What we know:
CATH architecture of the largest domain: 3-Layer(aba) Sandwich
Number of domains: 2
Number of helices: 13
CATH topology of the largest domain: Rossmann fold
Amino acid sequence: MNMINVLAVTHHARENINPIRPEASQIIGLHKTGKVKVVALCNPNSPLIALFESHGIEVFTDKLNQKFSLTTIKKIKQLIKDRDIKILHLFNNIACCNGAMAAIGTDVKAIAYRGQTGNMSRIDPLSYLTLLHPRLDKIICVAKAVELELKTHLGRHKDKAVTVYKGHDSSWYQNPKADLSGLKLPEDSFIISLVANLRPRKGLPVLMEALSLLPKDTNLDVLLVGADPSSEKIQALIESSGRVGRVHALGYRTDAPEVAAASDLTVLPTTKREGLCRAVLEANSYGVPAIVSDTGGNAELVKDGHSGIVVPPSKPQELADAIMQLYNDRALCALYGKNAKERAVNKFNVEQGVDATLKVYQSLLSS
Length: 367
């Protein structure tokens, strides 16, 4: 098969590249195979520009700030023509809306990305501007649970959905653990972390209720990375746990993986609409096990009873029981952490994501 020309359309505005590192590494890995030539379209001032260019990827820019932009559509369509693009890979909703429109009237194969379950309906017209757009040829899902849920919306086009796990590189997780001395935690405290953008569905109220169910003499501290310490709502939730002074809202942290590394256990009590949680994979990569709720791709990420514990969503008592199991058995907790690290390396590495994505490209172009 000839060299595959790919246009990757992606957007990232923050200086911290951690959230998009798996996606960027997949794009770079594909370019390095020698079978794919990637050009990228990014927003101006994106930290991805320098990263891509350092690996020989040509980068073009567009604001990429509107779900329907004639300027963006024309830019993508022109790049498809000028660079003889065979695969148009669209990594977010803005890219999807504009890219699918730009693909109309061309022979390019258009691929979108689906990162979580829920928030879609066949009777919602807006869904047809994104993942239900008829011009899409494939939709790469971040987890099998996401793929299966998406297929319920695809009617006779269920074959459009496919799963490719995002890859992580163990070399990313060699930094020292975060210094928690400023928190003045009690000696021998069992440290639990929750790293998340704390939308309601991330389950913070479930965790706080679970904490209230633990024995009062349990010596543990909880680190809430992403929770605004000045928020009255966050403080009220902390008070409801009955552990004021032992639950710490740390706000936004650029060193979130290192904070997780400094904990004994990470938790993700999502109530719905989960994908394949990057924060859990980061903690696992440092050898920290996880307790997760059985929603979205969580149960694919954590092998229950081997690399962590999977509990039903929105069940505080089950979450409390799981916490106490690992609190009371530190050897088991350490074993789960060891297994979680091995699982991250073997199942969720960059290479498997690159290989699987390349196969999707080749399959589309040979059909």
